[in-house]
Amino acid sequence: MTEAAATSNESAGRGNIPRVSVILPVYNGGRYLAAAVDSILAQTFRDFELIAVDDGSTDETLALLEQWARGDGRMLCVRQDHAGLIAALNRGLTLARGEFIARMDHDDISQPDRFARQVEFLDAHPDVAVVGSSVTLIDERGHAIRDVRYPETPAAIAEFLRTGSALAHPAVMMRRAAVIAVGGYRPAYQHAEDYDLWLRMAEEYALANLPDRLLLYRQRRDKLSIASALEQRLAAIIARFAARCRRAGQPDPTEGLTTLSRQDIDRFDLSPEERAAIPLELADALLAADTNLDAPGAFDKAVELLGEVDAARVPGSPLVRTMLAVGYGFARRHRPLLAAKWLWRAATCHSAALADVCAIVFDRATRRLAW
After folding, report:
1. Coil, strand or helix: which one is 206?
2. Which of 36, 37, 118, 304 has its CA 20 to 30 Å from the CA of residue 271?
3. Residue 50 forms beta bridges with which residues?
């Protein structure tokens, strides 16, 4: 059976068209799945369908989803061979019938009034195509870590998108027509598919966030691997350059690509300063993800990338901050001589470096005292 035929069969006999279609991609999510699904089925806003796309799970995920689907007619469970998150999201989009698309991840928990608040907002703001919310980060056991607020107004979000993602992906509700109009999720932007989508949507529509904390956003130690962290940052960098081309009326050099690599940077007309900043950003991504001392090669790769940086062409403070992070990494590995070497390099890499070091150390000490 072709995918088109399978999709047609899956869509048949699903009853009235709901206002909201919830897309829930799942891969081996059995451990946290019950809390996620229960939080959707318990929403105070009831006019929705829940489309769960099992991406070839090898645990009990499929059996659990099918059990819930038998008990609640609003839920549709579809299975595909393991093809990754982006393929699962786009599969969900092809099956969605609602005016609005709500995203959900299998390890997060939606507050009971999430859909009601977001539908109310979109109804009151027809110019807004995507609305997210603030979130509460939780750990693997469900304990609160901290609250995270995102920029709320379309203008603030547009400005924030120039440097990073301005919405929590599993907390958003979107107008289905707008998502389809911009082409959905692009397969090349693995691990940064949401950032690429927000950039493209912000070029045509307004985006917003509610200040309310409508999602418990689970942080897991295995959620993003070291390799994925590097791919994510590279995809985000390329997404920014591609957006700049589109805003300038130029073709998007990544249109039609299915994968991205560092060689794709050469598709863009960049200044020497912009090229020099790329390995620094990639090194930062590896260092941020380097929470496990046993992670093979991640720290060494970060040091290697930092060696590619032309210190004369990058802003001094970010370079100092990254060098200090490398020094701290060597200290954690009980290599004091290399830690001291990188501290010295950080303090001498440019004319105002020592002042930057003092400011960074003071800021970290102040934060720890406050904590």
Report:
1. strand
2. 304
3. 22, 75
